[in-house]
Amino acid sequence: MTKILIIYTGGTIGMVNDAKTGTLIPFDFQQIQENVPELARLNYQLSVHSFDPILDSSNMNPEIWASLAKLIRDEYDRFDGFVILHGSDTMSFTASALSFMLQHLAKPVVLTGSQLPIGEIRTDAKENLITALEIAATKKDGKPMVPEVCIYFDYQLFRGNRSIKYNSEKFEAFSSPNYPILAEAGVNLTFFPNYILPEPTKPFQIHTEFNANIGVLKMYPGITERAVKAITESGVDAIVLEAFGSGNTTTAPWFIDCLQQAIANDKIIVDISQCKGGSVQLGLYETSRKLQQMGIVSGYDMTFETAVTKLMYLMGQGLGTAEVKQLLEISIAGELTVGN
Ligand code: ASN
């Protein structure tokens, strides 16, 4: 019988209303099980691992990502697939981080959650949970259909490191602007194999070291030298530059000087776009040519979530600056497309 491990980290899916404060707080897995009696009718052997404490995903961090990766490694041979119940707020960050940590993954790791708690009558949690389990259990020719880290939410399956949470109210909370969905749930569960990562050829291993000492510099017209220096001179090891359009910034000499100084101080700067769709193309405009010339790295069509976690992951591996820069610009887990 197919064996699936459900890993419960928290999130709205398992929350209940605190009578005293009126706010939603994380609650135990048992009530999830009680609210979804259908789980007992599934033809899989389900096991549950509950995190302690269970969290609102705003409290996720690299240490907890590492615990998740270690748990999957420890249980890897005993299960056919993994379903992680996770708050939606930072689900795309965790999915991106795991896509780098779980190297040569040959089994499905499906993250899901919900916008309304499972105990609410109009909840989206039941469908998300049941279909996520089905996806994790689906095989083709005896092999897992989706051997990668993905997010299932509101009838769509996304590659984890291509997904973003783009809506805080709709059940359709996630999207993947730069990569097609991997599967769609309607009357049938339809997979799109051409977009799913191939089965790995090397043995599964994990990497759990992260360096979170990074900063984010988001461009806006009128940004001051003081605001820029608060990041470039802050002692971070690397910077995600959220630029305009296809990777453009102001060409004001003071701004270029700030970036040049940061590069001279061996900081890595990766340029991604504030636009949700499309790719960075350094050198397309005069306003990004200087960035390219000074050694700023193109993040191509990476999401913010992926740029942040990929930087933390690469910098945690003890690599030199040149190697980190080189790996930033190539796809290591299907997270970017070069030259689109
Ligand atoms: N605040 C919740 C969380 O991320 C939101 C959710 O799960 N829908 O844990």
Explain the overall architecture.
Keywords: Hydrolase. This is Asparaginase. Pfam families: Asparaginase, Asparaginase_C. By secondary structure, the chain is α/β, with parallel strands linked by helices. It folds into two domains: 2-206, Rossmann fold (3-Layer(aba) Sandwich); 214-328, Rossmann fold (3-Layer(aba) Sandwich), CATH 3.40.50. It is built from nine helices and 20 strands. The protein has helices spanning 30-35, 62-75, 91-101, 125-137, 225-232, 253-264, 286-293, 304-315, 321-328, and strands spanning 3-10, 15-17, 24-26, 45-55, 81-85, 102-103, 109-112, 139-140, 143-144, 149-153, 156-159, 164-165, 174-175, 183-185, 189-191, 205-206, 214-218, 238-243, 268-273, 297-298. The strands form six sheets. The protein has an eight-stranded mixed β-sheet, with helices on both faces. Strands 17-18-19-20 form a four-stranded parallel β-sheet, sandwiched between helices. A hairpin with a 2-residue loop joins strand 8 and strand 9 (143-144). Helix 2 crosses helix 3 (91-101) and helix 8 (304-315) packs antiparallel against helix 9. The radius of gyration is 21 Å and the shape is globular. The chain starts with a strand and ends in a 12-residue tail after the last helix. The relative contact order is 0.12. It binds asparagine (ASN). The site of asparagine has 11 residues, from loops.
